[in-house]
Amino acid sequence: MARPKIALIGAGQIGGTLAHLAALKELGDVVLFDIADGIPQGKALDIAESGPVDGFDAALSGTTDYADIAGADVVIVTAGVPRKPGMSRDDLLGINLKVMKSVGEGIRDNAPNAFVICITNPLDAMVWALREFSGLPHNKVCGMAGVLDSARFRHFLSVEFNVSMKDVTAFVLGGHGDTMVPLTRYSTVAGVPLPDLVKMGWTTQEKLDAIVQRTRDGGAEIVGLLKTGSAYYAPAASAIEMAEAYLKDQKRVLPCAAYVDGAFGLEGMYVGVPTVIGANGIEKILNIELSKDEQAMFDNSVNAVKGLVEACKGIDPTLA
Ligand code: A3D
């Protein structure tokens, strides 16, 4: 059987890291696409030359021609611009919406059977727009955010509790932005929910609240440190986990920006929810019950995403 084909649209910081991880994990052959001629070709060749050292079998190539992504099984989209210090994700909307139009059409014309993972910000609005421009089925187009947000939450919790992050699970809902909703009662250390750990004296409510806030601000913290762009190692690792779940039909339960129509009382919109990812893409959405407070936070997040989608429609009337 031929190796799967993974197309990466955008060969910047995240795109290059995605290519490296996909090759190291032998998920398939990798095609890096970018409009900046030379960058995708250079990164592909550089990573391919690490193959003999790391011992992976994967072909890597770079291109500026959409025809080269033909027949891709997975497409991961990072094309666009990242944040600089002082910018919010929403400031990227106008410029990245135009990028989603050309990328969506490129996917529609060349890789209509792919499972598409969008990473470009502002995430929930961009994945919606990408789906509209590409016309692919909703279950085959999703956005990466929840895996990263919950990985950040898990990292902070494992440091606070001084336990292996393998034993920390975390649950984050809502849009990828300042309104995201880390759900403490569904987040655990080896199955013990965080509120119980507060009762057990492992941490205090104040410390837990601070960790929740740090999770919400996780992207801005990295932007503030790097100054020239945004996070890329953890975002790439998170999208690779989703791609692997699809390619290997793992039925992983992962939070991601998925099309929700019915669950959580929502009508046809993209927002971060717990999903099952397998060979059929987004196979299921876990319609969990929320407490009054959680519902209020989720509603706030949903409204923020709706506002961004409306802004997209205002910029590009073909989306209205
Ligand atoms: P960067 O290193 O600038 O790479 C973006 C690449 O996109 C560049 O190489 C550009 O040349 C290329 N590009 C621009 N326009 C086009 C186009 N029309 N077609 C193809 N390629 C194009 O950015 P990055 O890799 O650090 O970040 C990429 C995106 O991911 C940004 O929008 C970030 O805000 C976003 N991001 C999202 C998360 C999430 O958790 C959702 C996390 C981190 C970054």
What is shown here, in short?
The protein is an alpha/beta fold and 320 residues long. It is built from eleven helices and 14 strands.
Structure report:
The chain has helices at 13-24, 39-48, 51-54, 93-110, 123-134, 146-161, 194-199, 205-216, 218-226, 233-247, 292-315, and strands at residues 5-9, 29-33, 60-63, 74-77, 115-118, 141-143, 168-169, 172-173, 181-182, 188-189, 192-193, 252-260, 269-278, 281-285. The chain has two domains: 5-144, Rossmann fold (3-Layer(aba) Sandwich); 146-313, Lactate dehydrogenase/glycoside hydrolase, family 4, C-terminal (L-2-Hydroxyisocaproate Dehydrogenase, Chain A, domain 2). Helices cover 43% and strands 18% of the residues. Helix 1 (13-24) packs parallel to helix 2 (39-48), helix 4 (93-110) runs parallel beside helix 5 and helix 5 (123-134) packs across helix 11. The protein contains eleven helices and 14 strands. By secondary structure, the protein is an alpha/beta fold. The chain has a six-stranded parallel sheet with strand order 3-2-1-4-5-6. Bound molecules: 3-acetylpyridine adenine dinucleotide. 3-acetylpyridine adenine dinucleotide binds next to helix 1 and helix 4. Residues 9-15, 34-36, 39, 78-83, 92, 96, 99, 102-103, 119-121, 123, 144-145, 148, 176, 229-232, 235 line the site of 3-acetylpyridine adenine dinucleotide.
Structural class assignment = alpha/beta
What series of H and E elements makes up the topology?
EHEHHEEHEHEHEEEEEHHHHEEEH
Spell out which ligands are present. 3-acetylpyridine adenine dinucleotide
Strand residue percentage? 15-25%
Uncertain runs with pLDDT below 50, 5 residues or more? none
Number of strands: 14
User: What integer value in Å does the Rg equal?
Assistant: 19 Å
> Would you identify the CATH architecture of the largest domain?
Alpha-Beta Complex
Instruction: Domain count, please report it.
Output: 2
CATH superfamily of the largest domain: Lactate dehydrogenase/glycoside hydrolase, family 4, C-terminal
Query: Which strand order does the major sheet show?
Result: 3-2-1-4-5-6
**How is the CATH topology of the largest domain named?**
L-2-Hydroxyisocaproate Dehydrogenase, Chain A, domain 2
N- to C-terminal distance: 43 Å
Overall 3D geometry? globular
Helix content: 40-55%
On the 0 to 100 scale, the average pLDDT is: 96
Reading off the top of the CATH hierarchy, the class of the largest domain is best stated as Alpha Beta
Largest sheet: 6 strands, parallel
Q: Number of helical runs?
A: 11
Binding site for substrate: 83, 89, 121, 152
Protein name: Malate dehydrogenase
Binding site for NAD(+): 10-15, 34, 96, 119-121
Keywords: NAD, Oxidoreductase, Tricarboxylic acid cycle
